[in-house]
Structure formats: C-alpha cells, structure tokens
Known about the structure:
The structure holds two protein chains of two kinds.
Chain A: E1 3-7, H1 12-23, E2 29-32, H2 35-39, H3 55-67, E3 75-78, E4 81-84, H4 86-96, H5 108-122, H6 125-129, H7 131-143, H8 149-171, H9 184-198, H10 208-221, H11 223-234, H12 246-260
Parallel strand pairs in A: 1-2
Antiparallel strand pairs in A: 1-3, 3-4
Chain B: E1 3-7, H1 12-23, E2 28-32, H2 43-48, E3 56-59, E4 62-65, H3 67-77, H4 89-101, H5 106-124, H6 130-152, H7 165-179, H8 189-202, H9 204-211, H10 227-237
Parallel strand pairs in B: 1-2
Antiparallel strand pairs in B: 1-3, 3-4
Helix pairs in contact in B: 1-3, 1-7, 1-9, 5-6, 5-7, 5-10
Amino acid sequence: xxxxxxxxxxxxxxxxxYIFAKKNNxxxxxxxxxxxxxxxxxxxxxxxxxxxxxxxxxxxREEFGKVNILKKVPALKDGVFTLAESTAILLxxxxxxxxxxxxxxxxxxxxxxxxxxxxxxxxxxxxxxxKALWIKVLIPxxxxxxxxxxxxxxxxxELAISLKQFEEKFLQDKPFIVGSEISLADLMAIVELMQPxxxxxxIFEDRPKLSEWRNRxxxxxxxxxxxxxxxxxxxxxELSNIQIDPQLKEHLAPVxxxxxx
Amino acid sequence: MVVExxxxxxxxxxxxxFIFAKKNNxxxxxxxxxxxxxxxxSEEFGKVNVLKKVPALKDGAFTLAESTAILLxxxxxxxxxxxxxxxxxxxxxxxxxxxxxxxxxxxEKGCKIFITKVLVxxxxxxxxxxxxxxxxxxELNSALKQFEEKFLQDKPFIVGNEISLADLVAIVELMQPxxxxxxIFENRPKLVEWRSRxxxxxxxxxxxxxxxxxxxxxxxxxxxxxxxxxxxxxxxxKP
Lengths: 261, 239
C-alpha cells in the first residue's frame, strides 16, 4: 500500500501539502474528502439513522474517522502510520523523500527561521486569512443569512495587522522568508493568502512587496501546479450551488454563531 | 558569548524553554522581561523581538522568536538527548503533530482561562465574568478530551516511553489554569498520572522552580499595571 493523502483543495493546508508532494514528485494516492459533502465532522451513528446516504459514503466516513480521529484535513496514511497537521505532514514528507534542502534548510539558523514562521503562522495568518471566505460565502450558505459589511471589514482589518507583521518581521527585503530560496514557510503562507482572493478580497492589491513575493513563490512552485491547486478556491461561486447536509448544518451551528458575534 | 533567553516565567512558553535549557545544562543568561511592567513593549526589547513577545532568544547577532523554534534550535545546537525530538521519523512526526495542533487548542483555551479570570479583571478593574469563565473551561475540556484520546492515549508520554518536547509544551500550558485556581487535573486520573511522570522526568525541583511564580498568581490581583500597558492590553483583549 502506498502513501495516501486525504485532501480537499478548498482547505489551505491541504493545498500546501498537495503542492509540496506534486512539486517533489512524491508518489501518493489522492483521497478526496469533500468537506461539505462528506461531512468529516463526525457522524455519531455511521451504521444507523442516515437516510438518503449511500452505504459507500458511510463506509468512507468511518474509514476516514479511523485515519484521523480529529476529523480534519489534511491527513496522511503511510501503511499503518497515520498523521494529522499539515506542518507535521510536510516535515515528514520532506524527510522521508529527501526533498531539496531549501524547503527545510539544514543550516541551523535558516531552519530556525522556517520553524519560527510555521509557529507564528497558526495564530496570525492562518487564523485570519480564512475568515473572509466564511463571512462572505460559507456562513450565508449555511445559515441563509448575510452578514453586515462591518463584519467583513473587521476581519480584513485583523488580517491587515498580520500582513503588516508578515512584511516587517518575516519577509522584510528578502526574496523569500528565509532568504534567496523558497521554503515550507513561503508555501504555508501563500496558500492562506489565496483564500480571501477566492471571495474577491484581493489582499495583494496595494501591497506591491507582497505581490512581488507572490509572483516569486508561484514561479518557484511552477505556475501550472499553482493554478491547479487553486482552481477550486478561485471558482468558489460553484460552492453556492451545493446542497448542504442538514446534520452538518446543525453540527456547525455553534461554531458559526460564534463567528457571527 | 552565551545564549540569552528573554523570559518571564508567568508565560507558559517561557517556562518550557527555561525547563528545557536548565534540564539540559545549556548555559544561558536569563534576561528577565517583566510582562506586568510592560517591559516587553520597550524599544530595547523590540530590537530583540520586533513582535514584542516573550520568549525570545539572542545568540550573538542571531535573534529568534517563537518557543517552538527556540526549543528546536537549542536541541540542535546543544545536541540534547534524542528523546526530546526523536530522530526516528514517525516519532518525530508525532512531536511535530502535537506542537502544531496545540496552538489553537490547548494553548489558546488555557490562555483564555488565564485571561478571563486574571488578566481582564486586572485591566478593567472589575471581577471576572463567571459565564465567560465557564465558556472558557468548556472549550478547554473539549481540547483535553482530544488530548487524551488522540495524543496521549494509553502511552506513558505523547510519543511513547519517553518525555519529548510535546509533553513539555503541553504541561506548561496546563499548569496555567491550575495557577488560576482551575484545577483541570481534578477528575482526570490519566492526566494526573501523565503529569506525575512528566514532573519526574523533568525533575521535581526544576519543575517547581519554573512554576513558582505562576502558582502564586493570586498576588497578581494587587498589581498596578503601568498605564501604557493597560491601554495596550485593553486593545488586545477587546471582545
């Protein structure tokens, strides 16, 4: 059995893992987990009261539950070894497949810079960049309500603070976060910053330095691969035609109410 | 020149670093940055870490922020024993997995309890909100459940038989609510046993030393925050 990567390209960290694996010609089986169709948030009775759901669908959900008890994507399965968290997956793949040094440099200080970014990323870029999608598309989709424009502004203002720190502390005047070559840090950052683009919030507009960095990252990754990974999020309007599973709606309701406050 | 670690032991990630450096006999200069005096907001400290947060490291001209990055840097530079960050690929991945996951779960929710019960009252001069505290405790409970089910399971430590950076980072976060009077270990025998093992692996004396200031956090309620810090916190903590 080969390497399996459980992914939905709507998810930013999934895109990072996808791009990394493809760019480095790492052979893997793409196991598609559709976040809003297959409900990976956990069905309490996989064998039971789920009218209108195929047997295969239920099995898949059970299987996925075993792969990642946290029920989040991305997830990796390598033989009997399963792994969650994109950072952990990227590092595991880089080590197992001996990817080029620049992704996670062996130089102690450069490596520390990647670690530094990957840590800060969680509660700054990652926590803010995804919100625009929720506010503009997902919450209305799930609740049937649109949110006031102030909500979006609030979220974009918070992201602006993170972007300022990103440019001042992490990027500075270098071509990439660590120096002259792309690393895991740039990859994790770029996929997050593409998320608001998909819903019409162009955070690169009026940020020339960031824009130039984005072009360099796209080129280093390969424009075709970059486009391929981002096709889904850049065509997010298609999502509004999807029927949302009522159980999923119910499960997400508390999360959504919090985001709306 | 010796490594400088900029720390305030009221901060969880600072404790992890302090314990790690001491346990491994890593020579360092303890540079005290007193958070309650707003010393982290100074221009001088800003030269060490432009993000103006602790912990921070200075090694000659090289400066570094983020406890995870600093722990890994020290483990590599000083060649600490393998169990802290195992060279075995899968064990190492387990440490990475925990270090990644904990940011928005154990760390965030543990912090929230401290903020709700201790920090906000200090800033606004009013007693804490019991509803908000209950909400924060519920959220941590959820994270603790995942911690026990996914990360700890029935193993002695997160990765297996030996303590690693994952356990260290986890324990310091879980001591924060304890210091606020929320004993999250109560009624969680498995967690209590894990905590005992971690304390023993670290060394009880060192563990106590690192946590002394946090376990006396009641003293904080009489602290006078400098006005600049109070304003800064008001902005940060606004709901």
